[in-house]
Every structure is written in C-alpha cells, then in structure tokens.
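Our consortium's second objective concerns turning raw sequence data into structural hypotheses that experimental partners can test. To show how far this objective has progressed, the report includes one record in full. It was chosen at random from the queue rather than selected for favorable results. The single chain below, 303 residues long, was entered without modification.
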Amino acid sequence: MLANEKILVTGAAGQVAFPVARELARQNQVCGFARFSKGSDRARLEAAGIECIQGDLATDTFARVPDDFTYVLNFAYVTTGDFDYDLAANAEGVARLMYHCRRAKAWFQCSTLGVYAYAGQRALKESDALGDSHRSFLTPTYSIAKIAAEVMVRFGARQWNVPSTIARLGVAYGNNGGWPAFHLEMLLARQPIPVHPDRPNMFSPLHEDDYIGHVPKFLAAAAIPPTVTNWGGSVGVSIEDWCTYMGQLIGVEPRFEYTEMGLASTMADPTRMHQLVGPTTVDWRDGMRRMTQARHPELPLRL
C-alpha cells in the first residue's frame, strides 16, 4: 500500500470507497470529500482517521479543498435521474476538481462496466463498443454520465498533464455490502430476485480485499493519455449461481423473476487488468460466505 502520501478520496462514504479510504488512512493523510447527507457517515470516516470535507461535485467551488494532494481517487457518483444535475456532478464536477488538483502525481477514476453496450454473455474488452446498458435498470443517467466522466478525465489528463487510470468496475462486494448483499437480504425476506431473461446473467464480482490491493497498482499505472482497464473478478459468475450458493448457506431456495427490467450480463475480459495488477485472489464462494457471515453473524451457515 501507499505510505506518507496526501490523498483525496471522493465519495468516501460509499460502499466501495470507504474500505479503500480506511485502509489508506493507516499510513497516509486521507481526506474524504462527500455530501455527507448522513451524519453517521462522517462519524464513521472520522473514526477511521479520515478528515472529512463536505461538498457537492455539481456545485462546489472546492475553495475548502486543498490543492496539494499527491493522489486523487474519484469514487463519487450521483444518480438522481435528472440529466442536468447528474452530468454536472459526474462529468463537469470531475473536470473542475481535476483542474483544482492538477498538481497530483496521479488521478484514479472509478468507472463501471456499465459503460459498455450490451453484448450478451461475452466477456467485454476495453475496445468494445460503449452504450447505454443501464437504462432498463431504472437508472437512465448511469451509463451516460459514467461515459461523460471518462471523457472528462481523458481531456483533463492531456490538458493539465495529470497521469490517470480509468478502471471500469464490475460487481464490487464484501463486508461493506454490494449488489450480492442486496440479494442476500432478498433471500432472507423470501422475495423473488429480478434477473434478465437472457440467461445466465454473467458478471465479474470483485471482493473488497482484492480491490483495496489493486488501487495502488492502478495509480502506478497512470499515464497520459489515461490507462483504461476493466476491473472485476478474474472469474465470471452468474447471479443465478451466487444467489443459489448464498441460499444454500442460509437454507433458502432462491426464486428468480425473469424480467426485461433486470440488469443484463456485464462481464469483463480481465486480460488487461491481469497485466496491470495480476489475477484476483479471493474465490467468489469464499467471498460470498465471508460477506454473509459479516452481515448476519446470527445465522448458522449450512455449508
């Protein structure tokens, strides 16, 4: 991990960003920038040794944000469904913050595999077509705003000479939550789990132990123009398989509801990621089991 650096983490209270910021704060000065709409989020970060700066990427002037960070990790994302606001926060705000922090050694942009056009169960490469894959998932601004953010980082890296890495994240999960954790709660509530009818629904789940370890390596790989890479587990897994496995752990048989409103397969080709950071180390079954134990310690697991 990094040591003795001054690091800004945006969206620091989020499911993915918080474990990264918490780990970095062990040996670095870490500031977390977020809206902090929940007072408990600020308290949680401060307890981990993270200095909190409250602000909104859509409107903030960044007057209270230092401009001498050595690294910036942008995990912030806003999805309200309002295109004007979401683009102002996720795209314009990224560029304005990048300019403010243009002296940084490197910029890390957390993007998403959701920037790709739907391609069935095929593993997606960084060179594949981009598209609005999340519109049917009740998040109409998600893919478009993430693509716009990538464009801003590409521009900013060249314009202000900021080495950057754009990492397109798959299904991040762990003790701090994630999409499989929502599925776990649905299993416990005996609710049907919505999945796309083009089955199996394949994704690239990535455990927090792995993504925490990847961040410093991605920063080391930052370049002008930006390094662009997929970011997910080395092995593709279907929603059907991970829900069935968690169901076996807790003694609940999943019920799947096949609907066009379900998020269709978005699985990464990990070749470039392996070149940059190596293969992932946490087997998805071990990760799901650990997540289940951490989030429901009262449950006796059956496997």
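The partners drew two points from this record. DSSP finds nine helices and 14 strands in the chain. The radius of gyration is 19 Å. Both points have been shared with the crystallography group to help prioritize constructs.
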